[in-house]
Amino acid sequence: MTEQDDSLEPIIEILREPAVLRADLTDRVMSEIERLPLPGPAAPNPVRWWRRGWTIRLTPLRGLGLAAGLAALLFAVRLGGRPRVGPVVPLGARAMTQFVLIAPTATSVTVVGDFNDWSMSATPLERAGGVWSVAVPLGPGRYRYAFVVNGAIWQRDPEAPAADDEFGRANSVVTVGGT
Predict the structure, then answer these.
(1) Percent of the chain scored above 70 by pLDDT?
(2) pTM here?
(3) What domains sit in the chain, N to C, each tagged with a CATH number?
(4) Are 141 and 175 in contact (CB under 8 A)?
(5) Which one of 66, 75, 96, 146 is most buried, counting C-beta atoms within 10 A?
(6) Which residue, among 140, 46, 159, 43, has the nearest Cα to 101 in the 3D structure?
């Protein structure tokens, strides 16, 4: 045996001795249990909430807002759920180009690009439900752009061709007056 095993031997001997319980142990435990308060009604089952009936109250203004949001969502789905970018109305040598982003949880969206010197405040989009859009007059040419969501998240247009900038960021590209 090693020196460490020798030091454990007294502890092992103590643990081998049978435990002696006092005769009144059961009486003491039962008296403590009797002092405990009786259990009340069962706590509500947190899983059952989804089966309960719900009452939804809407003011006419909120109902109108909900209907407008649903109409905008259906309109976006009717368009195929795809943002459209391209010239729509000629305006002299310029064409109105519609930028659209579907971002229902966004609080603000702007478009930045070659056409506005990448300014995050120059071209804000307007919200209609979860669909954000703006029309920008652009002359013929090729423009790189991106959306800035909530003032911080740089996002390329998922439905437009990709074009990296000189800083390694993924942007989108739109060509006006050509292919």
Answers:
(1) 80
(2) 0.48
(3) 75-176 (2.60.40.10)
(4) yes
(5) 146
(6) 159
